[in-house]
Amino acid sequence: MFQSSDFKPAKWLSNPHVQTMLAKFLNRNEIIPSINEVLELPDGDFVDLAWTEIPQANNTKPIIVLLHGLQGSKNSHYIKSMFKAIKQQGWIAVLIHFRGCSGKPNRLAHSYHSGYTYDIHYFTQQLKTRYQQCKLAIIGYSLGGNVLTKYLAEAKNSPYACATVICAPLHLASCSAKINSGSSKIYQKYLIDMLKQSTKEKIKLGLIQDISLNALKQLKTMRDFDNSVTAPLNNFTSAEHYYSESSGINVLNKIAQPCLIIHAEDDPFLSHEHITHIDYLPENITFEISTHGGHVGFLSTNITDKSLKPVYWLETRVPQFLQDYL
């Protein structure tokens, strides 16, 4: 079902760009301790995990899995924010770094994309085997939120008691167009520069041989990158083929778990009209829409705090939802 969010920013925080950029700026220097683990994958590659604590063999604390956004990591503001909130609940958090996002290149030519669920399937099986006595939940942000919808639709026997999808590009084609329009182009350049840099490193290492450094340099838009890099490295014929096959909006009705989807109408990364154009939602899915919030911002203020210091609303809303199932 669709419902209105109770998120309300202060007037000075209502601008979507303020929401998006200030959220990143506020805790840029905050350090949340984590414990790293390397998970070797069956195809010869690896992913790095970041735990708030390594569960003991007899652990019964709930474990919350986090999936970050495009080129995100354990240093992303929203991951640090949720790590802190999860620890305050007495739960354990673990972030799966998508391939190549933990500070070092992955070993294969392909890395990850918006519909790539192989690694979360494998990790979930490992998690289920290791900690059979623990309740599990999962949160996906932005690109990671779209990956999560794809995974949940595919995994009929998923062990996760519930899931939260935050600011996900569920309709990839329209979101690719959105970020290439108006003021959203600022974010596109930021993301494209990071994608090109990580791809450049893999070309120099000889991991990618079908794309030249000169051709990479010419790419200016997200669609350009997806058409020239993402699609061919992942067996798609074009950016359009990749978008149509990987968009989470096409499989929402196959999700069986209780799932909270959080979306802001003013998100500068996402196409609101296409994201919310859904004819049918199962009763287990709550699609919560706020007027404001930006992209993974959702900054509000505590009216009892005279300093009016911004607070991360997601730190409250997401654990509140998870508690009902954990």
In short:
This protein has helices at residues 16-26, 77-88, 118-130, 143-154, 172-178, 185-204, 213-217, 222-233, 239-246, 272-275, 314-323, and strands at residues 2-4, 35-40, 46-51, 63-67, 92-96, 136-141, 160-166, 259-264, 285-290, 299-301, 310-312. The chain is α/β, with parallel strands linked by helices and 326 residues long. It has a single domain (2-179, 251-323), classed as Rossmann fold, CATH 3.40.50.1820.
Major sheet characteristics: 9 strands, mixed
- Which regions have little confidence, pLDDT < 50, spanning 5+ residues? none
* Named CATH topology: Rossmann fold
* Helix run count: 11
Q: What coarse outline follows from CA principal-axis ratios?
A: globular
Radius of gyration, CA atoms, in whole angstroms: 19 Å
CATH superfamily: Alpha/Beta hydrolase fold, catalytic domain
Mean pLDDT: 94
Biggest sheet, strands in spatial order? 1-9-8-7-6-4-5-3-2
Instruction: Please provide the ordered H/E string of secondary-structure elements.
Output: EHEEEHEHEHEHHHHHEHEEEH
Number of domains: 1
